[in-house]
Structure formats: structure tokens, C-alpha cells
Amino acid sequence: FVVEALSPCSPDEVVWVSAETGSDMSALQLLRINLLLQEDVNAQEYARATALDRGFRAWASASTGIYLAELTGYFEGKGLPIVIPWLIVVLNVVVTMMNAYYERRHEIMIYSSIGMNPRHISSIFLSEAAVIGVLGGCVGYLFGLGAYKLIYILTPALQVKQKISAVWSFAAIGISMMAVIIGGLSALKNSTSITPSLQRRWVIDKRQESTDETRIVIPVQVYEEEIGEYIDFLDAKLEQGKKGHLMMVRMPKKTQTGEHSWEYSFIYSSSDPQISPLYTRNRLTVEKNGENTYTTILFTRGESDSLKQAGSFIRQIGLDWSLQREKGEH
Fold this sequence. Notes:
- The protein is of the alpha+beta class.
- The chain has 3 domains: 11-69, no CATH class; 80-190, no CATH class; 204-329, TATA-Binding Protein (2-Layer Sandwich), CATH 3.30.310.
- 46% of the residues lie in helices and 20% in strands.
- The chain is built from 8 helices and 8 strands; from the N terminus they run H-H-E-E-H-H-H-H-E-E-H-E-E-E-E-H.
- The strands form 2 sheets. It has a 6-stranded antiparallel sheet with strand order 3-4-8-7-6-5. It has a two-stranded antiparallel ribbon with strand order 1-2.
- Helix 3 (80-103) crosses helix 6 (166-190), helix 4 packs antiparallel against helix 8 (304-329) and helix 5 packs across helix 6 (166-190).
- The termini are far apart.
């Protein structure tokens, strides 16, 4: 067997030259560098750090003996193994964000009822996700650096060399933000708790070709267990609209067209036609469009200004319903 040690050499085999002179001697190959450390420097720790940082074989001469520090078997983690835990983080964020959307669905419906479009509602949740990503990246990076020290304290034989630099700091924060934002976007896209059709504000569609009616989808979502209360709420609001000062409801009529569908017909016009000649004929339908949700659609006839008044009136009813439901839950 072979025992590795420092081999003695005779004086005629040793040549001392300066670093500048040695760089001009092209026929020679650098095999070893001897360093004389200051007294306050631990030679063993310096040799260990040199072996970890540069991969060199470093001998250290101390009062207790001569020690060799070198790398043997080791594991080097690069970018590809990070993909799997990163995907796990994204999936966890998707599940967490979808639960958050579901728990805050009433708040989201209030946003949609007051006319906020999908971009506005999405920006609220994505901003929260970005803040979580920045904080999570910073805390996680600092915790990771501290974990290396803890590993060394618990297992001195296991040497871990972490990468500490500004680039890796920003990379950790960027990866964290990317995971959270991608997870938030995926959850927002696949979440049906906002509205079943992802329609957050009412819009005036094109007139139906077969009739003169204009179709307006009202962004209010009603669940199966509250449909009875919602129908009673519509009855009360239309009855209350008959006493309007500027605009008023005339001749309201309710018909149950099916087991899970209702239709209201009414005229919405100016209280005093001589002051404002706004006039619309309307049909308001409430139909089941999913397993446990109902959609409200307004079909109206009239001039453009009159259509906007009728749409605003029904949208306000949807907002009042959302506010009443939110107040009842609290």
C-alpha cells in the first residue's frame, strides 16, 4: 500500500525564484505554492477553505502536526434539480390561491358589481402574490444561508459551500416571485368562484338579429341555496322602482318559465316624459347555468341612452344584493 506524505528533497533540487521570474520560465510547470500565513490565521481552516473554494490539495503545518485538505466525493447541485421543487412550489401556490379566491368570492363579486374589469380584479391578487414572492424569496434566501451554518455545526464532517453573491440573491427573489405569480395566474384563470363566465362587469352586447333587443349580462352570481332569497330581493327592488323620482319601473310582471328559471318583464322610463323622454321595454331572466349557480341577463329595447339607464338600474340591484349578502354573512 502507499502512504501519502511530504517527500523530503535535497538542497540541490530546490530553486527559489520570484513570482515574476517564474512566470517567464515557460518550460516549468507550477506544481506547488508555499504560503507563510500570519500568526493570527488558522492554517487548518485556511487549507480547508482553499480546498472547498478552489478544489486544490492544501497542506497545513500546525503545532499539532501536518494536515491535508482535499476534496473527495461530493455532490454539486445545479439548475436542473431545482425545477422539480420549483414546480411543487407552483402547484402549492395554485391550490393556496384558489382557496383564497373561493374564500373571498363575495368581495370579488362586489368588485365586479361596481364595474371593475378583470384586469383590475386580477391586479389586486397578483400584487398580493408579488409581495408574498418578494418576502418569501428574501426570508427563504436568508434562512438557506443560515441553514448551511446549522448543518456544519450539527455535522462537522459534512462540508457545504454555498454561493453568496448579489446575483444569486436577486436570482432567489426572482425565482420565488416567478413561482408565486405563475401560480396566481393559473389559479385565477382556472377559478370559477369569481363568476362562472369570467365576466366581471356588465357590457352592452350587439342587438339580436332576430329581435330589436339588446342583451346585457349582469355580473352577479347567485348560488342554489340562496336563489329563493334572490328572487324575493328582485321582487322588492322592482316594486321599489315604481316609486322612482327620475326613472321608474312600470308594469312589472314575474313569470316562472321553468323549474330553475324566472323572467321579469317591465318598462323602465322617465318619471316625467316631458323632461326626459327615456323609455325602454325590458326582460330580465334568471336562469341556472351550472350545477349550483344562476346567471342574470337583461334584454332591453330602446335608444342608446335609455339602454344605459336600464343597465345601470339592474346593475345597481346586483350591487345591492352583493352588499346585503356580505353584510348578512358578517
